[in-house]
Design brief:
The N terminus is likely disordered. The chain has two domains: 132 residues, no CATH class; 256 residues, Galactose-binding lectin (Jelly Rolls), CATH 2.60.120. α1 packs across α5 and α1 runs antiparallel to α8. The protein has eight helices and 16 strands. Strands 1, 2, 4, 5, 7, 10 and 16 form a seven-stranded antiparallel β-sheet that branches. The protein has a seven-stranded antiparallel β-sheet with strand order 3-6-13-8-9-11-12. It is globular and about 70 Å long. The protein is α+β, with helices and mostly antiparallel strands. It starts with a helix and ends in an 11-residue tail after the last helix. One of its GO terms (molecular function) is unfolded protein binding. This is NADH:ubiquinone oxidoreductase intermediate-associated protein 30 domain-containing protein. Keywords: Signal. InterPro entries: Galactose-bd-like_sf, NADH-UbQ_OxRdtase-assoc_prot30, NDUFAF1.
Length: 396
C-alpha cells in the first residue's frame, strides 16, 4: 500500500535521525561456549525462563556474545558497550532518554535513563549494524545476566528482547516480553532466559496478524532490548500502573543458550563481541531516499523541540501559566547563567525556529501526508471489497 510503504520509509528515516541505519551482511557462527551443569550452576544464576526442563542428564551451554564484566579484558568490555546505540521514543515524538554506559571498576554495564510517557513511553537500545550475521541455528534462545538496581518494582514496566532476521529497516521485528526478578538480598545478577519460540512478529507494540514464527536458520541481524509502557498484543495495550521516571538495569552478559546432553558440553570460553560498523560507516550505507528525507524527519522529530513542548505543557497545566508567562519564565531561568540580553535573544531564536518548524510540518501534512492517507484508504477499501488481505494500520 502506498501510504503504508511511505509510512515505513518515514519511520526508517526517523530512526536514522536518532541512530545509525541498520544494514548488516553475513557472519559465521560463534564457537565460544560456556557450559554450566544444571545441578551445580543453578545456585549462582537462577533462570526466569527456560526452553526445556533441566535434569541431571542435561547441561546448559551458554554462548556469551557481549561481555560487560571486563574479566576477559577491558577492551572487550568497551567493545561490547560500544556495540549498542539508543533508540528511545524520540523517534515518535517522545522525550525519554537512555544510554548503555560503562561503570568503571564494576563487572557490569548500566543501561539507565529516564522514561517519560509524554509523547512516547519507552526506552530502548539495539546493536549497531553487524558486519557479519550471527549464526544461532544451534541455539535455543537468548539470555541476559542482569539486575534492576534503581528500584524494586520491575513488574511495573514491560521488558522486551528484540531480534531481527533480515536486513530491512522496516517497523517489523521479532520481540518477546520477559519478567524481571526483584533484586536479591546479596545483590547478585539473575539470569533471564527467553527461548526463540517466545518471539513473535510485531509492528511497534502490536502483533502482526498471521505473522510467521521466528526462523533463525538465516542468522540474526540485530539484537535489542526495550523498557516500555506498552505490552505486546493484537491491539495497542498499556501496562496498568506503569512506573515512569528513572531506571537502571545493570547487565554483566548477553548471549545465547542451548540445552545439551552432559557428554556434549563444551568448556567455558571468553565472549567475543561481533564487529559492528561505526555510526559514520552505517550512515554512508543509508539508501538515497533515507538521506533525502532525513532533514524532513528532523523537522518532525526534534528532541529539543519535544522537550520544550513538554516543558511548556507542564508550566501551563501544572503551574497555570499562560503561554506568555511561560516564555518569560524561561527568559528569567536563563538570565542568571547568560545574562538578560543573551537569554532574550536565545528565547527569540527558539520561538522563531519552532514557529518555522510548525509551518513546515503543517504544510507537509497538507500536501503529502493527508493525500497519502486518502489514497491508502481507497486502496484498502478496494482490497476489502475484493476479499484481499489488508494489513492493519498501527492505529487500528
Amino acid at each position: 500500500m502506498v501510504f503504508s510503504s511511505m509510512k515505513s520509509l518515514i519511520a526508517a528515516v526517523c530512526i536514522a535521525s536518532q541512530v545509525a541505519a541498520f544494514s548488516p551482511t553475513s557472519r559465521a557462527g560463534y564457537a565460544t561456549i560456556r557450559s554450566i551443569n544444571a545441578n551445580h550452576g543453578a545456585a549462582a544464576l537462577s533462570p526466569l525462563f527456560s526452553s526445556s526442563t533441566l535434569t541431571s542428564e542435561t547441561n546448559m551451554d551458554y554462548s556469551p556474545v557481549f561481555d560487560f564484566t571486563g574479566n576477559a579484558s577491558l577492551d572487550e568490555k568497551s567493545k561490547s558497550i560500544a556495540s549498542f546505540e539508543r533508540i528511545d521514543d524520540a523517534i515518535m515524538g517522545g522525550i525519554s532518554l537512555s544510554a548503555l554506559k560503562d561503570v568503571e571498576g564494576q563487572p557490569y554495564a548500566s543501561w539507565s535513563g529516564v522514561c517519560r510517557t509524554d509523547g512516547g513511553g519507552f526506552c530502548g537500545m539495539r546493536t549497531l549494524p553487524f558486519k557479519e550475521t550471527l549464526d544461532v541455528s544451534n541455539q535455543d534462545g537468548v539470555y541476559v545476566n542482569c539486575k534492576l538496581a534503581s528500584d524494586d518494582e520491575p513488574e511495573r514496566r514491560v521488558w522486551k528482547l528484540t531480534v531481527r532476521t533480515d536486513t530491512s529497516r522496516g517497523e517489523q521485528v521479532y520481540q518477546a516480553m520477559f519478567d524481571l526478578a526483584k533484586a536479591s538480598k546479596d545483590g547478585s545478577m539473575t539470569m533471564v532466559k527467553v527461548p526463540f519460540s517466545s518471539f513473535q512478529l510485531v509492528r511497534g507494540p502490536r502483533l502482526v496478524p498471521d505473522g510467521p514464527p521466528l526462523d533463525t536458520k538465516g542468522g540474526l541481524f540485530q539484537l535489542g532490548m526495550t523498557m516500555s509502557k506498552f505490552k505486546i498484543g493484537e491491539m495497542t495495550t498499556e501496562l496498568d500502573n506503569f512506573r515512569p521516571g528513572f531506571f537502571d538495569l545493570q547487565m554483566s552478559e548477553i548471549g545465547f543458550y542451548k540445552d545439551v546432553p552432559v557428554e556434549e558440553s563444551s568448556k567455558a570460553a571468553a565472549a567475543l563481541a561481533p564487529d559492528t560498523f561505526s555510526k559514520e560507516e552505517a550512515a554512508k550505507k543509508r539508501p538515497l531516499p533515507l538521506r533525502l528525507l532525513l532533514p524532513v524527519a528532523k523537522i518532525f522529530f526534534s528532541e529539543k523541540a519535544n522537550r520544550r513542548k513538554s516543558a511548556m505543557k507542564i508550566l501551563r497545566e501544572k503551574r497555570n501559566m499562560t503561554r506568555m508567562q511561560a516564555i518569560f519564565f524561561g527568559i528569567k531561568a536563563r538570565r542568571n547563567r547568560v545574562g538578560l540580553i543573551r537569554s532574550t535573544a536565545k528565547t527569540a531564536g527558539i520561538l522563531g525556529i519552532d514557529s518555522a518548524r510548525t509551518v513546515v510540518k503543517n504544510f507537509l501534512k497538507v500536501v503529502l501526508i493527508f493525500p497519502l492517507k486518502i489514497v491508502n484508504k481507497i486502496i484498502r477499501s478496494i482490497k476489502k471489497a475484493l476479499g484481499m488481505k489488508v494489513k492493519l494500520s498501527m492505529k487500528e
